[in-house]
Amino acid sequence: METRSLAENEFRDVLRRTGLRATRARIAVYMALKEIGGHRSVHEVAEFVKERGDEIPRMSVYNVVGDLQAAGLVMCADTGPGRALYEVSDTWHHHFVCRVCGKIIDVPCLKGEKPCLDPPAPIGATIEEAQIIFRGVCEGCSET
User: Fold this and answer.
1) Quick check: 69 and 86 in contact, CB under 8 A?
2) Helix, strand, coil in percent for the chain, rounding step 5
């Protein structure tokens, strides 16, 4: 339990540095995303938080994920149609999705920041980000 308290203090500091209040729900959701890693749905995060002993309503988890994303602590892993997936990420990157098994692999962005591409914006618009989804067959599925 002492280790969890240390981690909570670290996450509290991270939230405060980005200007977010360090609420119980924000700490729990951010810790969950960090701990389980990968690309996770709000449902998976809510279930993990519940298993850890925190009862946070699913709508609150959605709101917290939105707050964390707006603060730049969490990235929506754009993998195409379907449920939204989120991850803790310090660097802007893209995703490869295996057409066979559905595995999602991070792909480094050549520029490393938003927007990674510099296409001409529609008149009067500003491009804030561009995510590229690579699709194909992962190494594991290629070997079978």
Assistant:
1) yes
2) 40, 15, 45
CA 125 to mean position of chain CA atoms: 26
* CA distance linking residue 62 with residue 136, whole number of Å: 30
Predicted confidence band of residue 1 (pLDDT cuts 50, 70, 90): very low
Q: Counting Cβ atoms within 10 Å, is residue 1 exposed (0-12), middle (13-18) or buried (19+)? A: exposed
Selection from 47, 90, 45 nearest residue 65 by Cα: 45
Structural domains in the chain plus CATH codes: 2-76 (1.10.10), 91-142 (3.30.1490.190)
**What is the reported pTM?**
0.81
pLDDT confidence band for 6 (50 / 70 / 90): low
Tokens at residue 44, please? 């998976």
What three-state secondary structure class fits 103?
A: coil
Q: Which structure tokens are listed for 35? A: 């701990």
User: 50-80 pLDDT, tens per residue?
Assistant: 999 988 999 999 999 999 999 989 999 888 8
